[in-house]
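User:
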Amino acid sequence: MRSRSSSNVSTTSSSSDSAAVGNTNIFVKLLNGETIPLALPSTTTLSTLRHLISLRLSLPAPTFRLQHAGSHLTTPTLPLASLPPNATISVTLPLRGGAPKKIRCTFKDCKDPAQRIVGDCSFCQGHFCGKHRMLEDHRCSGLEDCKKESHERNADKLNSERTMVVKGI
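Assistant: Predicted structure:
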């Protein structure tokens, strides 16, 4: 007896039945570990198979990948006839995330990694490597502001430490 799934593809059939019609038997291993057999016409493309699987899993087709023998099946127009008989296709999800991207020096053509904390310029908001972390080295746009701030800070400190001569003693 043949049973039909919601995608109008027979999920159980005998191998003599499929050979007579020109069908290709494949097995699809789903995300939960369940394996379903499919008997599909040999002219079925991978994009059609992806659509059928997306209907079965209730997932959009771009969110999962198809793998066979450890390699991704990426060509959507590839006919199933190019796969070996009784092939097992695994449905996988792509990995998300990864290591954080390294911050690079923002000086013109420098590709060195920026130094943490000491490589951050508070005047131009740039991130610089050990060679360009000094204001003069990366030709900071806030260099004049820095000099003025430093001059004012030093002048205030000198004025606060000035010794006053007391007259009349």
